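User: Some background: our group keeps a shared notebook of sequences we're curious about, and every so often someone picks one and asks for a predicted structure to add to the entry. Today it's my turn. The entry only has the sequence so far, pasted here. Could you supply the structure so I can complete it?
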Amino acid sequence: MSADIRKISVYLEETLTEMGVPLERPIRKVAAVAVIANPFAGRYVEDLAPMIDMGEELGDLLARKCLEALGATEPTIESYGKACLVGEDGELEHAAALLHPTLGKPVRAAIGGGAALIPSSKKRGGPGRPFDIPLGHKDAAYVRSHFDGMEVWLNDSPRAGEIMVAVAVTDSGRPLARVGGLEASEIEGKDGLR
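Assistant: Of course. Here's the predicted structure to add to the notebook entry:
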């Protein structure tokens, strides 16, 4: 692993009821977060290729951690997302290098596919700062029932020269979703949208 990882945290959330209504089955979300040293902290570097390579390795590691926490097999995953929180000595482009060029492919491989773009977010902040991992259906971006998010934070991360990299997956959409739109059962799976 080319990333210098200080710690990994895994968050599992299970929702059993919503507004007093018992759910048919628990809705489960999991996020895996790696806290890594930022090799370019405090300085401008034109070539971010080393971070792009780290993104691929981290995508694989974090997706596997998510599946392990859920005790899930690939076909049970319905939505996904990714996010970074960059410490104050880094820049948002460092997060973009980790998240965009290569992180998605190993996530899709681990969960058994995914035609839709993986929703993402990036921000800068210090230790204890919460950040959101946006979630969307893995095969069709227009499935509104799966527009969701998961908030994560670590009390000691990221330090100024660190980056928190997160991947999240779920086994369903929001509880009691009822705002219309494309249903998961109607997915055509042709373009990642519908």
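Suggested note for the entry: Residues 5-186 form a domain with the 60s Ribosomal Protein L30; Chain: A; fold (CATH 3.30.1330.110). The chain has one domain: 5-186.
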